[in-house]
Amino acid sequence: MTLSTRPLFGGALSAAIPSSATDISDLREIPDNQEVFAHPHTDQSLIVELVEYQGQVEDQDAAKYHFEDIASSNKALAAGAFEVTNVVPLSKSEVSLSDCSTAWMLTGTQCVSKFNEEARNMVTLHLGLFRLPQFSTEILVTFNDPERINPESSSAASVETHREPWTVLDFQRLLQTLTLHNPGLFG
């Protein structure tokens, strides 16, 4: 998979993103605090999001806090609808974003529907979290990687087109290369 460095948030950040990724802001309105990319042939997506720093949450629990917040937004909080399978710290030597106090990578699954459909899909969610307390901000990077698509889902059409899917290594490369160029981004 070819990765290319892309500017994010008007160039305030940059990261290596798969060059085949479609910038969703070219297709529809995206909140100002998000950059969203979709795979051209699968139902995979990458989201880089600026969120408020959660000072009440301990560093080792922060990635799980955000994972559960995403599960709540996805209406995936029912028993068995979400599970955290792994949380690991990322050392400063593994990341380019030296301004972060700590960085974490979480892997888990969520049973979610798209567009408020009844049909639910099993999605592996890889989450990277960079904590920036000095800017009252956290950078949340998510890689949504569908595992099982319900035949009734609007995503079912993409099941047969799994050409060159993105990998966890592509996601890790994004996390490793995320770079801050302009701290003014955080206000």
UniProtKB/TrEMBL annotation:
Gene3D superfamilies: Mog1/PsbP, alpha/beta/alpha sandwich. GO terms for biological process: atrioventricular canal morphogenesis; heart contraction; heart looping; protein import into nucleus; regulation of heart looping; regulation of heart morphogenesis; regulation of membrane depolarization. Pfam families: Mog1 (PF04603). GO terms for molecular function: guanyl-nucleotide exchange factor activity; small GTPase binding; sodium channel regulator activity; transmembrane transporter binding. The keyword Transport applies. Signal peptide: none annotated. Keywords: Guanine-nucleotide releasing factor, Protein transport, Transport. One of its GO terms (cellular component) is nucleus. Belongs to the MOG1 family. This is Ran guanine nucleotide release factor. It comes from Takifugu rubripes (Japanese pufferfish). The lineage of its organism: Eukaryota, Metazoa, Chordata, Craniata, Vertebrata.
